[in-house]
Design goal:
By secondary structure, this protein is mostly helical. The protein is 72% helix and 0% strand.
Length: 180
Amino acid sequence: MSSATLSDFEFESCPSYAPFYGFMGVACALVLSNIGAAFGTAKSGVGITAMGVSNPGLVMRNIIPVVMAGVLGIYGLIVSVIIGGSIASARPQKNNMYSMYNAMKHLAAGLCCGLSCLAAGTAIGIVGDTGVRAVGRQEKLFVGMILILIFAEALGLYGLIVALILSQSGFTCGSIEEEE
């Protein structure tokens, strides 16, 4: 029995199924970001509601975690639109312009943004819930809560930045044929 080496396999650089991976990046960015935003909003909203029963005057001041969680969904939307707009249509014949290189870059970009926003939304939800309840009892904790929320939001922003960098330049399959 002979063992196969990597050079024995041919890799198609522009297969017709490449856009599937690009669109998975679109879906991952939007869906995972929105899950993070929804969790952060729901968890913070529960804390705001509980705090509002005993101190209703602070409800509007403590709405900040909900707004910060909602911004995470916008990050996912931005990345999804950018990636979706750069996916070239696949043609079933041989002139597919969308490469696997671009597809994997777009999938990685979507996962970077989506998972970062999911983590940020979880952090914002937990800090927001506990933080607004604490601020309801002791208003001097407000600035500390906001600082923690800013650092949690930064996690989503890091994912957005990396996703934007990944989604920029790429490899077009037509460029090989033009050079020959």
